[in-house]
Amino acid sequence: MLRVMRSGRYALPVASIALATLVGGCSHPAPAERATAPTSSAVSQAGIDLWVGPRPCADEPTCLQVKQNPDSTWEPLREGIAGFTYQPGFVYQLKVAAAAAGWRLIAIVRRDPAD
Predict the structure, then answer these.
(1) pLDDT at position 62, please?
(2) What is the dihedral of CA 106, 99, 90, 53, to 10 degrees?
(3) Mean pLDDT over each residue of the chain, to the nearest integer
């Protein structure tokens, strides 16, 4: 365990440093374990959530209504999503990644009938 020097004047400082090291070491993660902001390549590999509305845009049948937050308003997406086959009447939650020509489907997270 900890070895405290026999001299009275060193016992307290050595014990204090040892205690601070033990307590401090347990409460703070190592530098490699600390959370960091994702890089753009990490975001594209992990993907982002995208919701697709139950109806296409009013002016173009190939245009999808999408949003990146379930509480935001629908926005048009004219370039489509590679690998995704849209069926009207459903609300989709997708995991997508940026692609050279728009978005690429990673996974369909949910598919719920429209209200």
Answers:
(1) 84
(2) 140
(3) 72
